[in-house]
Design goal:
By secondary structure, this protein is mainly β. The chain has two domains: 91 residues, Sandwich (Immunoglobulin-like), CATH 2.60.40.10; 84 residues, Immunoglobulin-like. The chain has one helix and 15 strands; from the N terminus they run αβββββββββββββββ. Strands 1-7-6-3-4 form a five-stranded mixed β-sheet, with no helix packed on it. The protein has a five-stranded mixed β-sheet with strand order 9-15-14-11-12, with no helix packed on it. The chain has a three-stranded antiparallel β-sheet with strand order 8-10-13, with no helix packed on it.
Length: 227
C-alpha cells in the first residue's frame, strides 16, 4: 500500500521544521559586549567614543557583487552574526554604557570569504547630568562676601570631565575648574551656569544653572549729635 503524504502530515512536517529551526536559531544579542571593564584611558585607546543617546554606525567600502557578514562580540567572548546581506553598513542603538566590539567578513560573488576584519571597538558613555552645589545662595555686594559653586556630575563616576562656567549665559574666561567663586560688586540677581563634558568626548555634556542673589551693602552711617 502506498504511503500517502496527506495534508495533515504536511502540516505536522512543517510544524516540526519550524520548531527545530527556532530551537537552534540564535537570539539577537543586544547590549554591550563588555560592561564591566573600566573606561578607556583616552579616546585613542578605542575606535570610537559616543554619547549614551548616540547610534553606533559602522561601514566599509562597498564592492560590487560582495555580501557582508557583520559580527558582534558577546559577553562570553564569542562572536555572533548580527547582520548578513548586501549592506556594507551596520547600525545599532546601544542599550547601555560599555564596550561594543564588532568584526566584518566580506564574501565575493563566487563565495570566497575574506579574513575577519580587525575588531572595531566602540565605547558608549553613560548618561551625564550636571548639578551645582552652592555654599550660599546670596552674597554681599562690593565683594564683601563670596560663595563657592561646585559642579557635581551625576551618573558618570570614574570619569574625568571638563568644565565651563557662565555668568548670565556668557562664558567666564578661565573659569574651567570644577568650582567657581562668586564675587559681585552690584546688587541684584545673577545666574551662573556650568557645562560639564566628558574628557573622552566633549560633545557628551550636560548644563545647569543656579541663581545667586547679590545683597546691597548698607550705606555708610553718619554720626550726629543727639539726642
Amino acid at each position: 500500500m502506498k504511503n500517502k503524504f496527506t495534508p495533515l502530515k504536511a502540516c505536522l512536517t512543517l510544524l516540526f521544521a519550524v520548531i527545530i529551526s527556532s530551537a537552534f536559531a540564535q537570539t539577537p544579542f543586544t547590549g554591550p559586549s563588555d560592561a564591566v571593564t573600566a573606561p578607556p584611558g583616552s579616546a585613542a585607546a578605542v575606535s570610537q567614543v559616543i554619547c549614551s543617546s548616540g547610534q553606533i554606525q559602522l561601514k566599509t567600502t562597498p564592492t560590487a557583487g560582495y555580501t557582508y557578514q557583520w559580527y558582534k562580540k558577546k559577553t562570553d567572548g564569542t562572536m555572533q552574526l548580527v547582520q548578513d546581506g548586501s549592506s556594507s553598513t551596520y547600525t545599532e542603538t546601544p542599550t547601555g554604557p560599555g564596550y561594543y566590539t564588532y568584526q566584518l567578513v566580506q564574501i565575493n560573488s563566487t563565495g570566497c570569504t575574506s579574513a575577519s576584519s580587525d575588531p572595531f571597538n566602540v565605547f558608549v558613555l553613560p548618561p551625564i547630568t550636571a548639578g551645582i552645589t552652592a555654599s550660599s545662595s546670596n552674597v554681599c555686594a562690593s565683594g564683601q562676601t563670596s560663595a563657592t559653586l561646585s559642579a557635581t556630575p551625576v551618573n558618570g563616576s570614574g570619569y574625568t570631565y571638563t568644565y565651563q562656567w557662565t555668568r548670565n549665559g556668557v562664558d567666564i574666561p578661565g573659569a574651567t575648574s570644577s568650582t567657581y567663586t562668586v564675587n559681585e560688586s552690584t546688587a541684584g540677581s545673577v545666574t551662573f551656569g556650568v557645562t560639564v563634558a566628558y574628557t573622552l568626548n566633549s560633545s557628551c555634556s550636560s548644563s545647569t544653572t543656579t541663581t545667586i542673589t547679590v545683597v546691597p551693602v548698607p550705606t555708610k552711617p553718619v554720626i550726629v549729635t543727639g539726642p
